[in-house]
Amino acid sequence: MLDKVKLVLALSVFLAAIVGYYVYAADIAQLYRVLILLAAVGIAVSIAITTERGRFVWSFVGEARTEVRKVVWPNRKETTQTTMLVMLMVVIVAIFLWLLDWTLGRIVEMFVK
Predict the structure, then answer these.
(1) Residue 54 pLDDT > 90, yes or no?
(2) 75 by DSSP, 3-state: which?
(3) Dihedral sign computed on CA atoms, order 30, 33, 37, 39
(4) What backbone phi and psi angles, to 5 degrees, belong to 72?
(5) Which residue of 3, 17, 53, 92 shows the fewest CB atoms closer than 10 Å?
């Protein structure tokens, strides 16, 4: 039950910050409103992390970062080659679909006339 209260409190802090950002748009400079919003988001996240679900999400994010570090990213040459291949396939499929549409259009036109 305490976890639910903490999550509601975190959500309330977050929503209050968003509402305050727009309510005080004319009174407070945008820089200060953004800083207050970021501080409120930090407070809301800090509260949410103290719950069981928050710890689970934080653990998941940490594991996801670990997995991203294990990824072997393509080099520039591989990226360029793959991009060119994708562009070529898009052009080929576009031409095929255009020819198919044109052919089917002529067939329908022949039956209609």
Answers:
(1) no
(2) coil
(3) positive
(4) -95, 110
(5) 92
